[in-house]
């Protein structure tokens, strides 16, 4: 893809940062969030997960689609995930109380009837797509009106998908900033060599912002993993370089990379960072990294181990540095970052303005 001059640029100086501390922002629960890989939830089994301190049990019944309930029995409050899947419901492992997918207690084995009120255990809207299990942890009535993520590359046979599934001990906002700010290539110098980042500008709205980049190699050779994933990257002229667009459309984040002259992205990445604990100091990153298959059939399977090795190295360095940022915040008790990059200043504004205050 040939890069034209950007007609819409991020302002050199953005508006002052809102007074709310971004590291104390709670993610808005009124969205669809993946909480598990489909392969981790076996037929007839349960799986314990968490969203921002809310314990949730995923249940895959012996027949039908999976469902999600709060992970407690209304009787003695023990977690339902230690129970037993029974038909289309789940039995508590303590006294055998049975719940359906809507959270109704349908049976108490030692009583003739169940007198509990309906929905005595909270149920969560639940959907399965792209090899992930999603829940809607916010107001249930909003689930049908909130757009479900659309990932066309995930079902496109022209792409091979790698799943990202890892815990990072930091506030989820650090993850957005880490991916958005391509100026941190110095962190990856051992894996990437000397790469110069060229910021091309960007665009923003109330709930989203995006930034464009291209790159130039200053020193070293192109890593094998990158070469296999994106192809050999020559040092093209400025008007015909590769293009990377990173977008945060709250609460999701995408990265697309077009090699020069191509119509389809060579890399199409979708990420979301799920807070685990109530203080939202830990997150579980779920993502789909979709890589366009080379023209030679089957060759991507041979190259895949190199791609996995290379991306694992990049992810490990990013996790390490983000956890160090969280440690600095914990020691200081507030966000003291002196951020000057316009893209990150605008990203922070989007995150803060669309999040909720963190409960004490």
Task: Please describe what this structure looks like.
With 360 residues, the protein is α+β, with helices and mostly antiparallel strands. It folds into two domains: 22-26 and 148-357, Naphthalene 1,2-dioxygenase Alpha Subunit, Chain A, domain 1; 43-123, Rieske Iron-sulfur Protein. It contains five helices and 20 strands. It has helices at residues 172-180, 189-192, 224-230, 299-332, 342-354; strands at 25-26, 33-37, 45-51, 54-60, 67-70, 84-86, 89-91, 98-99, 105-107, 123-124, 126-129, 132-135, 159-168, 194-204, 208-219, 243-249, 252-258, 267-275, 283-292, 356-357. Strand 4 and strand 5 form a beta hairpin.
Summarize the structure.
Helices cover 19% and strands 32% of the residues. The chain has 5 helices and 20 strands.
């Amino acid at each position: 893809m040939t890069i034209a001059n950007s007609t819409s640029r991020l302002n050199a100086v953005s508006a002052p940062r809102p007074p709310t501390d971004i590291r104390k922002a709670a993610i808005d629960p009124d969205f669809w969030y993946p909480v598990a890989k489909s392969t981790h939830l076996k037929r007839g089994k349960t799986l314990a997960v968490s969203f921002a301190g809310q314990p949730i049990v995923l249940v895959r019944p012996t027949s039908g689609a999976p469902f999600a309930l709060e992970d407690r029995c209304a009787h003695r409050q023990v977690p339902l995930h230690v129970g037993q899947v029974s038909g289309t419901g789940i039995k508590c492992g303590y006294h055998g109380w049975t719940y359906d997918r809507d959270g109704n207690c349908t049976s108490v084995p030692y009583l003739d009837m169940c007198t509990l009120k309906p929905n005595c255990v909270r149920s969560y809207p639940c959907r399965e797509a792209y090899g992930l299990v999603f829940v809607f942890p916010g107001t249930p009535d909003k689930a049908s009106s909130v757009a479900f993520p659309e990932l066309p590359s995930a079902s496109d046979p022209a792409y091979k998908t790698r799943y990202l599934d890892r815990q990072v001990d930091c506030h989820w906002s650090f993850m957005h900033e880490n991916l958005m700010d391509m100026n941190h290539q110095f962190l990856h110098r051992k894996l990437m060599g000397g790469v110069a980042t060229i910021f091309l500008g960007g665009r923003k709205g109330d709930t989203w912002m995006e930034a464009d980049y291209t790159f130039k190699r200053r020193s070293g050779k192109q890593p094998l993993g990158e070469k296999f994933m994106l192809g050999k990257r020559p040092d093209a002229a400025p008007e015909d370089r590769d293009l990377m667009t990173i977008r945060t459309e709250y609460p999701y984040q995408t990265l697309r990379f077009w090699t020069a002259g191509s119509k389809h992205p060579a890399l199409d990445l979708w990420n979301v960072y799920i807070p685990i604990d109530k203080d939202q100091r830990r997150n579980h990153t779920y993502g789909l990294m979709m890589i366009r298959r080379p023209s030679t059939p089957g060759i991507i399977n041979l190259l895949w181990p190199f791609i996995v090795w290379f991306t694992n190295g990049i992810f490990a360095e990013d996790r390490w540095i983000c956890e160090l940022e969280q440690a600095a915040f914990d020691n200081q008790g507030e966000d003291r970052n002196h951020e000057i990059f316009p893209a990150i200043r605008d990203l922070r504004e989007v995150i803060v303005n669309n999040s909720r205050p963190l409960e004490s």
